[in-house]
Amino acid sequence: xxxxxxxxxxxxxxxxxxxxxxxxxxxxxxxxxxxxxxxxxxxxxxxxxxxxxxxxxxxxxxxxxxxxxxxxxxxxxxxxxxxxxxxxxxxxxxxxxxxxxxxxxxxxxxxxxxxxxxxxxxxxxxxxxxxxxxxxxxxxxxxxxxxxxxxxxxxxxxxxxxxxxxxxxxxxxxxxxxxxxxxxxxxxxxxxxxxxxxxxxxxxxxxxxxxxxxxxxxxxxxxxxxxxxxxxxxxxxxxxxxxxxxxxxxxxxxxxxxxxx
Length: 261
Ligand code: NDP
Prior knowledge:
single chain; 15% strand; 7 helices; Rossmann fold; binds NADPH dihydro-nicotinamide-adenine-dinucleotide phosphate; alpha/beta
């Protein structure tokens, strides 16, 4: 019997093999959870699961492309066969293609929407029946500030705004079954997804325009674990921006930012 906020709970993290997903996997395991690290990259999922078990935690790696219903269903069935249930789903797997409206090809659109919007739908649909049966569960969708304000790309904005809508819809539908659904909308957080961007001068400008600067994975992880935990028992249908203040401000440049002149 493990101890901690998630003692013996079964937690699926999609895209758990890298970046934020990896940080969630490690944090849930530290808090006693049985973690299913599901990623399109089998080796990455195994690396994260192995690091958890090497530290004395409980984890299983499953290769899963969230855009494919058969792989999602297999991943959830394997989880239920192994651990008997799913307590928490973290819909985290995502990609970003930085494209303008006219620069977005049909293939860009389909790939982004399939991964960032259809993927979370397939995963939530696959876990919901087992949660409904037990009348208990929490789903945390990983959205983005790009679902709240314009900042990155056409298909990414559509998928993340869609996630916020799905969060409200599923919260309504699943509340009578004891299931809570919330989203976390991270701001700019240093992970492999923005590695190239962080090597450009734009990274400094971005940091300077966000009241609290660039985020760290631990900032996002704290919010995800809170919304997944029983502490958040009366919170559902919400999108929590964890963005260092990005979506609360308009930055009109360094001169404007010099107050009390
Ligand atoms: P990473 O690229 O570091 O991690 C994403 C992981 O998801 C990778 O392991 C990736 O595998 C995997 N993945 C990609 N496509 C699929 C798929 N079809 N099925 C399963 N797994 C897949 O990104 P982050 O950790 O930064 O991002 C995680 C989430 O956070 C995303 O939803 C992103 O939109 C969101 N987010 C991140 C922000 C940031 O600043 N970092 C800001 C706002 C939101 P592979 O590497 O092989 O592609």
